[in-house]
Amino acid sequence: MKIIPSSNTSQVSPPKENLKNGFAKVVAGGRIIRIDSQKPYLERMVTGTISPGDTITHKAKSKELALLESITANLDAGIKFVDQQETSLAKIGGKLSEMALCLNKARCPDSDHTERTVLQEKFSQAKDAIFKESISSFDHSALFSNGPSKPLTIAVPNHGEWEGLSIERSDLGQTGLKTVMGGKVYGDGPGFNLDHGAIKRAFSEWRSLCTSNRLSWGMLVDRLHGISSLHQKILDGTPWRIPEFNSSPSYGPLRRPHRNN
């Protein structure tokens, strides 16, 4: 599924990913990385590769506190990813508004050929801007997808288990958005003539993406507060043991609360 840019923009289609097996990327060591199945689960999904300097830094701390600091860094990185998504979604929403205005003016009976030609050019420029946002990234990881994609995953301890928090890439390959990106408001150029229903559907899909983004942000912030609270309890002397990763091959190392939804 592709977002179709205007003729002045070279077409780029993000790679399709296999949705059947595990997670594509995790946030570990404060970075978004690909899973390295050769590493132990803790390093693979939480701490990332630990350098000698990090080892020296953590000598004076318990392994539990050092681990919680890694989890905190991972949640911070996830929040920044979602924040960047929100910024790009806001820009896309602004351009959709410009496109809707172009369509309204082009449909006005008082507009002439010259004005409608200018409106089509503005419409194409807005499409180019949306396409540019659609291929933006954070920490070398795409913010958006063109169709279903694997989530970014953050492993966090929860009630004695490791749980996988999923951060979805906003899907810009939905029908309404694709229709608008393949349309026009005037002229004999490529694309099909849009109506107000197509713009309305694109806005509805965009609003849903914004809502999902804020829910992800709230989930990550809530878990960050929980980890901060646990960190303070350990400092105050409350015992805490690092959970073991799930060894069941049918469920994988992380508990995923929404896997069957």
Give me some keywords for this one.
disordered N terminus; four-stranded mixed sheet
Tell me what the structure shows.
- This protein is α/β, with parallel strands linked by helices.
- The protein has helices at residues 41-47, 52-57, 63-107, 113-134, 175-181, 196-235; strands at 25-28, 31-34, 137-138, 141-142, 144-145, 152-158, 161-167, 170-171, 183-184, 192-193.
- It has a single domain (25-235), classed as f41 fragment of flagellin, N-terminal domain (Up-down Bundle).
- It has a four-stranded mixed beta sheet. The chain has a two-stranded antiparallel sheet with strand order 3-4.
- Helix 3 (63-107) packs antiparallel against helix 4 (113-134), helix 3 (63-107) packs antiparallel against helix 6 and helix 5 crosses helix 6.
Quick structural gist:
By secondary structure, the chain is α/β, with parallel strands linked by helices. It contains six helices and ten strands, in the order ββααααββββββαββα. The strands form four sheets. It has a four-stranded mixed sheet.
CA-based shape? elongated
Structural class: alpha/beta
> In terms of per-residue confidence, which ranges show pLDDT below 50 for 5 or more consecutive residues?
1-22, 55-60
Radius of gyration: 23 Å
**Helical residues, percent:** 40-55%
CATH class: Mainly Alpha
Number of domains: 1
Order of helices and strands: EEHHHHEEEEEEHEEH
The spatial strand order of the largest sheet comes to 2-1-6-7
Separation of the first and last Cα atoms: 24 Å
> Helical region count?
6
For the report, how would you describe the main beta sheet?
4 strands, mixed
CATH topology call: f41 fragment of flagellin, N-terminal domain
CATH architecture: Up-down Bundle
- Quote the average pLDDT: 85
CATH superfamily: f41 fragment of flagellin, N-terminal domain
- What is the tally of beta strands? 10
Q: Which strand-content bin applies to the residues?
A: 5-15%
